[in-house]
Write a structure and sequence with these properties.
Layout lengths: L4 E6 L2 H4 L7 E18 L10 E22 L2 H8 L5 E9 L5 E8 L13 H10 L1 E2 L2 E2 H14 L5 H10 L1
């Protein structure tokens, strides 16, 4: 990381909803993490009364999560911190670039089980039903899942958790 810019890793909507300026964009991955629809969304894909479900990362030995790394100026974090305010915190991580295997230090946003919006695990059918019925200011929770699944396919990534939920919603 340089003095005026840092890498941020996107594994959910940061892959396809890029509403911030960046200096570089690279397909990348982080090790030891897996995507799960275990975080509640009270502000984007649901409401406080009926939260949607969005992805967070959970530790998983041996797992590799593919997404996108962005090199951003420090000022961009004000926007990202606001966007990810509903229970997410920055977490330092090593990010591996897909193109050349280089590793850089960066951050990702994780919503762990200790945050107010955490919904936790559920079976695939329960998750799919929850996602199918939730809508918030940023649109339907179903659209979030389908856009994420399409974005992962564009990266050449097969995430079994996301794919199973997509199949149940289709």
């Amino acid at each position: 990381m340089s003095g005026d810019s840092d890498w941020v890793f996107g594994y959910g909507s940061l892959i396809y909803k890029v509403d911030f300026p960046y200096l570089r964009r690279e397909v990348a991955s982080v090790s030891g993490w897996q995507r799960r629809f275990w975080q509640g969304s009270h502000d984007h894909r649901g409401t406080p009364e009926a939260p949607g479900r969005v992805v967070t990362l959970v530790p998983a030995a041996g797992a590799v999560c593919r997404g996108v790394a962005y090199l951003v100026e420090h000022a961009v974090f004000e926007h990202l911190d606001h966007r990810e305010k509903n229970g997410y915190r920055r977490h330092a991580v090593a990010i591996e670039m897909a193109a050349d295997g280089a590793s850089v230090r960066g951050v990702l946003y994780v919503a762990d089980e200790d945050n107010h919006a955490y919904l936790g695990p559920a079976g695939p059918e329960e998750l799919a039903a929850h996602i199918a019925g939730a809508t918030g200011p940023s649109g339907s929770n179903r659209d979030y899942l389908l856009r994420l699944a399409a974005a992962l396919r564009e990266l050449g990534e097969h995430d079994p958790h996301v794919a199973e939920l997509e199949a149940l919603l289709r």
